[in-house]
Amino acid sequence: MFDIGLSSAGSTVSFATSSGADHPPENIIDGKSDTYWLTTGMFPQEFVISFASTMNVNSIKIKLHNVRRLAIEKSEQVNENRFYRDRYGL
Predict the structure, then answer these.
(1) How confident is the model over 40-83, as pLDDT tens digits?
(2) Residue 8, SS3?
(3) Count of other CB atoms within 10 angstroms of residue 16
(4) Which of 50, 55, 68, 90 could share a disulfide with 14, CB 3.0–4.6 Å?
């Protein structure tokens, strides 16, 4: 099965609320099992993955540690700047 969420498929992490220097958000989509995104700062933590083109997502695989709640949202907006303006009132 082709993983559309990987950087090798053209996906990018276009937004992340925080990161550590040794564990950047790009590690989320690098496909390696020994890398990870380490968050810092205040909660909640968020990230946005942008795909190379419009995609149908059938499943999502996430590995988490010490997470109390998880919410998954989608946007079909092509312009990611509009998503940020709508979401954060920018």
Answers:
(1) 766 788 888 888 888 888 888 888 888 888 888 887 766 655 65
(2) helix
(3) 17
(4) 50
